[in-house]
Design brief:
3-stranded parallel sheet, two-stranded parallel ribbon, 14 helices, 51% helix, binds adenosine-5'-tetraphosphate
Length: 359
């Protein structure tokens, strides 16, 4: 894991929860978010959410349910609310301490959207046009997608920089958006002659499965929006569903790969091996050796047992929390109040820097 480059990320606040991180001997401040777009899956878990809990002893952490990102594509309002609670429940179920760290939903902290407008005016059209996720999501329908879908990476930059976050744990797919965040920070600091105002945020991408692929196609990312439920393991899937999906997961007719180099040429096998290594917290090379030359059926049985053991408790805790929406809402409200206390003074500084008059 990269070491923190601690810069000017301290927000002045009297709230003991929000005391500047470096005064508490921490490595930096983390912001990361997940969209409440349904079907939270193994990729979201291994690429992001599981790491959230693992980082909380070393960093001051803000974990956000990014509901404003979700509406860049149409959402059913009633479903959006319940999915927002579901993501918050997943953070808690994965072990994030909502009392110590900040769990909240984005729309409860207006400073995100306020800073995003400033960043819309800093980011260049050329930069935004190069975002591969926009190209993939818009596809051939570019004229018809929302302006929000195009501008979403500027809001993501605002989510991070409104807290002057130094680190962002994400899956591999978000790397390009993180680079854009850094470009926006550098351009803002230069344009307004405010050296070091925003930190140059580092991605934290680690683990054996930073890009989990679809169970139906090892060349395609596992995704919430994939129409095939068989393509992903949802965090709320029960043991039978997990077993069935792994049994049906696409493989090739050969026995298990003999080496990592062999695995890399076989995307479906490589994906399953990466998932196994990540769930077992082992090196992939180790897992490849253990199953080299064996039948996929044997490997899949072991993978099923492991996945059920690791994901079962998380799914069960999520289901328990979902039955107590009052508790989840209280965590989100409390987190949002603490997040606002951090964000508002930074927005004030931005507004002063840009030249906006105060009310
Ligand atoms: N397949 C993946 N492997 C590893 N990490 C992944 N992440 C997403 N998919 C994978 C990481 O999960 C975090 C939350 O992602 P998100 O909800 O903000 O949106 P996304 O990246 O667009 O995820 P999806 O599942 O593909 O959603 P849809 O289908 O709605 O677009 C991020 O840290 C992401 O890197």
């Amino acid at each position: 894991m990269p070491d923190a480059t601690v810069s000017s990320a301290d927000a002045p606040t009297g709230n003991p929860h929000l005391a500047p991180y470096n005064a508490r001997g921490l490595k930096g401040r983390i912001l990361s978010g997940v969209q409440p777009t349904g079907n939270l899956h193994l990729g979201n878990y291994l690429g992001a959410i599981r790491n959230f809990a693992r980082l909380q002893d070393d960093y001051e952490c803000l974990y956000c349910v990014v509901d404003q990102h979700a509406i860049t594509v149409p959402q059913d309002p009633a479903l959006l609310a319940s999915q927002t609670r579901e993501i918050a429940a997943a953070f808690l179920a994965a072990g994030v301490d909502g009392g110590k760290q900040i769990i909240f939903n984005q729309s409860m902290v207006p400073a995100h959207a306020q800073l995003a407008w400033v960043f819309n005016c800093v980011a260049r059209m050329g930069w935004m046009s190069r975002m591969t996720q926009f190209k993939e999501k818009a596809g051939k329908d570019r004229e018809n997608v929302s302006l929000g879908l195009f501008a979403y990476p500027a809001l993501m930059a605002a989510d991070i920089l409104i807290y002057k976050a130094t680190h962002v744990p994400v899956g591999e797919d978000q790397k390009q958006h993180l680079e854009l965040t850094r470009d926006i920070a550098i351009k803002f600091n230069n344009d307004f002659n405010a050296p070091d105002f925003f930190p140059i945020t580092e991605p934290l991408i680690f683990g054996a499965a930073t890009r989990v692929m679809s169970l139906r196609d090892g060349t395609k990312k596992m995704s919430k929006s994939d129409p095939s439920d068989q393509s992903r393991i949802n965090l709320t899937d029960d043991a039978d569903a997990i077993a069935l999906k792994i049994r049906r997961a696409k493989t090739d007719p050969l026995p298990m790969p003999e080496s990592e180099a062999d695995a890399e040429k076989r995307p479906d096998a490589d994906n399953l091996l990466g998932i196994f290594a990540a769930l077992a917290d082992r090196e992939k090379t180790d897992v490849v050796s253990e199953f080299a030359g064996k039948q996929f059926s044997e490997f899949k049985a072991a993978l099923t047992e492991l996945a059920v053991a690791r994901l079962g408790p998380v799914g069960a805790e999520m289901q328990r929390l979902m039955k107590d929406p009052g508790h989840v809402d209280a965590v989100l409200r409390d987190g949002a109040a603490r997040a606002r206390a951090l964000a508002d003074p930074i927005l004030d500084e931005v507004y002063r820097t840009v030249g906006f008059l105060k009310p």
